[in-house]
Q: What sequence folds into this?
């Protein structure tokens, strides 16, 4: 069995299967609302929805129960909202600094 290292450095004792192309499948984490934080093996030739590679996909993790799935999905949505809010505030702060610099020159 091959030890795999995923995004955060966590090691797994998961046998990396070969996809239909004969290559070792890549381990990824799902960030979509339907399957939040579930890990899966996918063809290394795939790159999202546009390029499917050979179409090989195998889930590693079991699906969350509905209540936990709803909670994780809500937390991920909330995180995105907060990140957007931080970005807007940083942009506003930069604009204020620019305006202050212009006024200071005059």
A:
């Amino acid at each position: 069995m091959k030890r795999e290292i995923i995004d955060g450095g966590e090691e797994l004792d998961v046998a990396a299967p070969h996809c239909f192309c004969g290559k070792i499948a890549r381990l990824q984490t799902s960030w979509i609302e339907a399957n939040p934080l579930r890990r899966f093996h996918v063809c290394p030739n795939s790159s999202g929805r546009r390029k499917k590679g050979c179409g090989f996909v195998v889930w590693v993790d079991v699906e969350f129960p509905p209540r936990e799935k709803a909670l994780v999905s809500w937390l991920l949505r909330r995180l995105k909202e907060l990140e957007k809010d931080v970005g807007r505030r940083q942009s506003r702060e930069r604009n204020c600094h620019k305006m202050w610099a212009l006024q200071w020159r005059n």
Notes: Residues 66-106 form one domain. The mean pLDDT is 84. Strands lie at 3-5, 11-13, 26-29, 39-42, 57-59.
